Amino acid sequence: MARNPADRLTGGETATLEAETLQTSARDAELIRGIPRKAWRVTLLSLGGWTLVNADGSLFNLNYPLIQNSLGISDNQIGYIYAIVYAVGAISTFVAGPIMDRAGRKPVYQACLLAAVIGSIMTAGAPGLLILIVARGFTQVGASTEWMAGQVMVAEESPAAVRGRLIGFAQIGYPIGFFLGSVMSFVIVPFLGWRWLFVFGILPVAMMIWARRAISESHRFTKVKETGSAWHENHFAQVFAPDLRRSAILVSLWHLFYAFGFAGIISYLPTVYAHYNVSLTYTYLSSAIATGLAAIGYVFCAFVGERIGRREAAAIWLVLGSASGFYMAFAGSTLITLTIGYSLIYFFIVGHITSAVGFASEVFPTRVRGTGANLLAGMEWIGFLGAALAGPRMFAAIGTPATLAIWLGLCPLLAASCAMGMRRVAPRTVLEDISQ
Asked: pLDDT tens for residues 130-148?
């Protein structure tokens, strides 16, 4: 496979990079099985940021019927809000990737949370449709760029032996965020209304920005940037160059199919539950149960990926998730059966992302890792955009069960087939060795 000059590290340099990851702990005291303090700090702060931006996102997803009534927004306009916001997410990730590969991971790592704070403030005070769209756009910029900025930082600071587990641990911020959003909605909305939900989310994000200020730039980014001129070339052109083209295309399709299916259910969950006469209050509870259990699926998938390979673990989770999706589509008609189906979907379909993101961090070399990882994220937001526009039309044309069968049964199978079409990366491979 052709390699870029920026990837041409000698065996000694590769060993040095891996050793430097471990030597960080000599200055900062090692924690838990020799994992460097910085790796733990980056992982925990990425987990915290990813949790908070997803908690904010879940508040809108769970409470849009109340926001509709308050601001006089129609069902079609909700679909357009989702479409615009998800388009903003796609654009911001495609822009953030090359920025991460030119300016560094740290600037994006911080700026994304600032955008999230601005969006939360504007959402809480939104007087109408236009300001609400702008507010959710700011929030989406923060959420979409936070995801891969944090995960790339974790991947590049982690020793090979535990990289998958740390990435997986940071990823559980997604279900934890939706769990917190469900609990907050259940507790706060009946007493204070929907606006206060977004107010309470501002301070934790501001504190997270402050906590991240001392995190230094990724040492892998700093070292490898000095090795060649490829950093001045078009990063998307490098991602789609012959040596990486297959990976770029298949990872894009993988996450497009996955996101189109999953986005449908999380974006229109109140609509789906209302079809089966489940109230909004019980929708909160069902979502809390499903997202609470999802954290187990996330962690389990990360550990399985460490044993058999992240590509293989992700594909297995998607296939099992497809079976769960067909169950929800055709057997989910009561609060109990819907909750069982939704919990299994979160455990498997959404849980596969821990191995999927780790795999994406491995198949792209350091010089374009930010661009490649954000290509994945951008395609997911395009999938979300498609689901937002198609959702109401699919419900009207083919009904709720058939729509769920496509979203939750068929789409995960297509994603799994794309995953297995990519080249294998053995567990515990050093990042610098993968491109060789």
From this structure: 999 999 988 888 888 887 7
Q: In the chain, what's the furthest Cα-to-Cα distance?
A: 64
Question: Which residue in 200, 215, 216 sits closest to 117, CA to CA?
Answer: 200
- pTM of the entire predicted model: 0.76
Q: Using pLDDT thresholds of 50, 70 and 90, give the confidence band for residue 234.
A: low
Does 21 reside within a domain? no
d(CA 180, CA 164): 25
Reading the block at residue 38, the tokens are 């910085």
Structural contact between residues 243 and 372, judged by C-beta atoms closer than 8 angstroms = no
Taking the C-alpha atoms of residue 292 and residue 343, their distance in angstroms, rounded to an integer, is 9
Judge whether residue 274 has pLDDT over 90: yes
Domain count along the chain: 1
Beta bridge partner(s), residue 31: 35
pLDDT at 160: 72
Does residue 1 lie within any of the structural domains? no
Mean pLDDT across the stretch 70-90? Answer: 86
Q: Provide the pLDDT confidence category of residue 248 given band limits of 50, 70 and 90.
A: confident
Q: 83-94: per-residue pLDDT in tens?
A: 898 888 888 887
Please indicate, yes or no, if residue 3 is contained in any of the structural domains: no
Using an 8 Å Cβ cutoff, are 387 and 263 in contact?
Answer: yes
| Structural domain contains residue 155 | yes
State the Cα–Cα distance between residues 275 and 398, nearest whole angstrom. Answer: 14
Count how many residues are written for the chain: 436
Residue 266 belongs to what domain range?
29-222+233-428
What does the mean pLDDT of the chain come to? 82
Task: Look up the CATH number of the domain holding residue 72.
Answer: 1.20.1250.20
As a whole number of angstroms, the distance between CA 121 and CA 137 comes to 12
- CB-based contact 179:291 (threshold 8 Å): yes
